[in-house]
Amino acid sequence: MTDTFTPRALLVTGGAGFIGSNFIHSFMAGNPGCRVVNLDVLTYAGNLKNLAGVEKDPSYRFVRGDICDASLVASILAEENIDAVVHFAAESHVDRSITGPEIFVRTNVLGTQVLLEESRKHRDARGGEPFRYLQVSTDEVYGSLGPTGFFTEETPLAANSPYSASKAGGDLLVRAYHETYGFPALTTRCSNNYGPFHFPEKLIPLMIHNILARRPLPVYGDGLNVRDWLHVQDHARAVETVLKKGKPGEVYNIGGHNEWKNIDIVNLVCDLLDQRLGRGAGESRSLITFVKDRPGHDRRYAIDAGKIKRELGWEPAYTFEQGIAETIDWYLANQEWVAEVTSGAYRDYYDRQYGERGEA
Ligand code: NAD
Ligand code: TYD
Fold it and tell me: Which of 25, 162, 195, 339 could crosslink 232 through cysteines, CB 3.0-4.6 Å?
């Protein structure tokens, strides 16, 4: 383990999304006094309501802007004297990448390169002052597993979807910046996250939303694809741990050793909601509808998270039982959040809070 790095001014990209907003909440709670600047262009997935709890904090600043805008990125890095970047901003949904891959390449490849290049120049301009860049990536860059085995950090990249290919492109640029310029970049690759503020196009929040509305629950193919689920707050803590204690140039896999077949997850969510809603046993399961499979659908993901545990001492705090129950309770208590997201009303929040200028 290298000496602990303590950021003083952190640039978070994509902080209005699912994982970025969860990260900002936990990071700010644990690091009072550290400046946190959130650069987010607010695509359909960006929702400032996720950050309502921190936006009045004087250490926090929101900037509406695009990571592909080099001059904007350069000016934030300089004027805030940023010493760490945590890069969450991305197009993140596999199904959308199948119908429209271009924006994935623009944001996830070109956007990463712009951020790397401006960060590299900014770091050079700061002389020998400590600086770190963390690339938030995904286990999907490793492709698909058969029934056994795990992804390790040595597993070759073999992305299968336009989403994962664009993430792998970003990861290779991060590697290249470390190898070529000695740029102090770290990479994390995490399995599927679940928890609060998850956009209801992804499996778990979509199922909760459709169960509440008694709508069909679309399960792709035979429902036997396997994902390895981790609570988003465990991911946020892992990212903070790698930022502070990881070794530049290294990759760290993050996962919960928590594999589920999709159909089993959907059944579980149905049963937990039936109990809470006072519905009869099996009522929500009757909404399950097997639909045409996703093209190129990866069969199984499973992470070996041994390195981050051994070298940095991180392991998940949530059991899945606790995490999924809390998540379902959060969605039940925050139906207004879901309704605003699905109706598009969440977009007005930005104009009300920040007006035309785009920043606080
Ligand atoms: P998300 O789609 O919920 O949020 C993405 C955020 O990025 C949004 O707020 C969006 O407005 C912003 N954004 C998109 N394009 C931008 C641009 N050009 N400039 C500035 N901001 C932009 O995504 P998420 O699920 O929170 O994922 C965050 C990161 O974690 C991604 O890099 C993703 O690849 C990675 N990841 C996600 C998971 C998962 O299970 N969701 C698992 C492992 C890794
Ligand atoms: P998703 O949440 O889109 O995450 P990812 O594709 O990045 O793993 O999907 C999780 C799994 O659930 C994946 O195997 C696809 C499947 N799935 C369905 O069966 N039905 C759905 O409606 C969705 C959105 C996903």
Answer: 195
